[in-house]
Amino acid sequence: MTWSLTAAEPVCFVNLIVPEVNRARLLEQIIDHLENSLKLNIDAAEQAHETATHSENVAENRHDTLGLEAAYLAQGQSQRVEEGEVDIVAFKALRDLRYSESITMGSLVALADEGADEGDRHHLLFIGPAAGGLKLVVDQNEIVVITPSAPLGRALMGHFVNEEIDFSVAGKTSIFDITAIY
Q: Is the pLDDT reported for residue 9 higher than 60?
């Protein structure tokens, strides 16, 4: 069985309406976002490298550190470029994943927060290899990317639909029902 590649009518689980989300479109939006960020990071790295190697930034005395600071910035920007390339490859590899009944890398998870107000009760989370915290709107649904290394991601891994998880942050415990896994 593979993930649905088309948007459909909402599916009902645990007496809750859960929207069907086009997983392929979600992955493409994540990859597009990462590729756009990569382009910006490449431009920033090139600019930092030019600044670091510009003849006007050669140190005139031991207190003149502009060139050194620019070199550190260029190194950091280059590292961001490398990380961005790795992230894109990791998300592209998720295109070929098969459906799993339990929450794994690449799962799209619908949660209901039992203690939240009605408007804030439902959450759609995508378990990704990177880009934790990224928010996207796909098929009129807000989806947040989380990683398995994040506390909530770690708590969700391996669980199934209709299970309940307790999740504590800063002494506050929330109870989530897993209403769907795509």
A: no
